[in-house]
Amino acid sequence: MARWDNFHVWRARLPHWRADGVTYFVTFRHSRPLTPPEVHVLFACLLQPEGKRWNLDCLCVLPEKTELLVRVPKGSGGKQAELSDVVEKAKSKAGKAILKKSGERFPPFYRESYDHIVRDVDEFHQFWESIIFSPAEQGLVEQAEEYDALYVAGA
């Protein structure tokens, strides 16, 4: 028996667990490294649903992957948005903008994202630290706060 409200699982290439009132860790790889302007396009598209369709705890768009911690609240009609729909819409919007400038045929992101229900506070802190410190660990900046494609709620 699941310990979450309205728990269900669906599967594409990867399994996707869904429940009400949980925090998700989401990551997706890019099919090629993004240029700095492309990083900013994707970052802006992922920030757009903030406060409307989801609540971000942190978000980091790196040249080769994107990671975020997010909660999907119930909307005004009492229905929760589907996490993968919000992620895919942002990826689609960013992909179209990038394709328009690059002339490529396909968006630079792999189609499916990996998502994971964060199970407890310790796991939340592990994901949070991993996301926050990844720009410095990859040598993109000296200090995490210098990276301009990093969003931390309340910072």
Report what the structure shows.
The longest helix is centred in the middle third of the chain and has 20 residues, at about 85-100. The strands form two sheets. The chain has a five-stranded antiparallel sheet, with helices on both faces. It has a two-stranded antiparallel ribbon with strand order 1-2. It has three helices and seven strands, in the order E-E-E-H-E-E-H-E-H-E. Strand 4 and strand 5 form a beta hairpin. It is an alpha+beta fold. The protein has helices spanning about 35-45, 85-100, 120-135; strands at about 5-10, 15-20, 25-30, 55-60, 65-70, 115, 150.
Strand arrangement, major sheet: 6-3-5-4-7
Q: Which CATH class applies here? A: Alpha Beta
Q: What can be said about the biggest beta sheet?
A: 5 strands, antiparallel
Average pLDDT value? Answer: 90
How many discrete structural domains?
A: 1
Q: Tell how many strands the DSSP assignment holds.
A: 7
- CATH architectural label: 2-Layer Sandwich
CATH topology: Alpha-Beta Plaits
Question: Nutshell version of this structure?
Answer:
By secondary structure, this protein is an alpha+beta fold. It contains three helices and seven strands.
Key terms:
155 residues, alpha+beta, Alpha-Beta Plaits, five-stranded antiparallel β-sheet, two-stranded antiparallel sheet, 3 helices, 32% helix
What topology emerges from the helices and strands here?
Blueprint: E1 5-11, E2 15-20, E3 23-29, H1 36-47, E4 55-61, E5 65-71, H2 83-102, E6 114-117, H3 121-137, E7 150-152
Antiparallel strand pairs: 1-2, 3-5, 3-6, 4-5, 4-7
Helix pairs in contact: 1-2
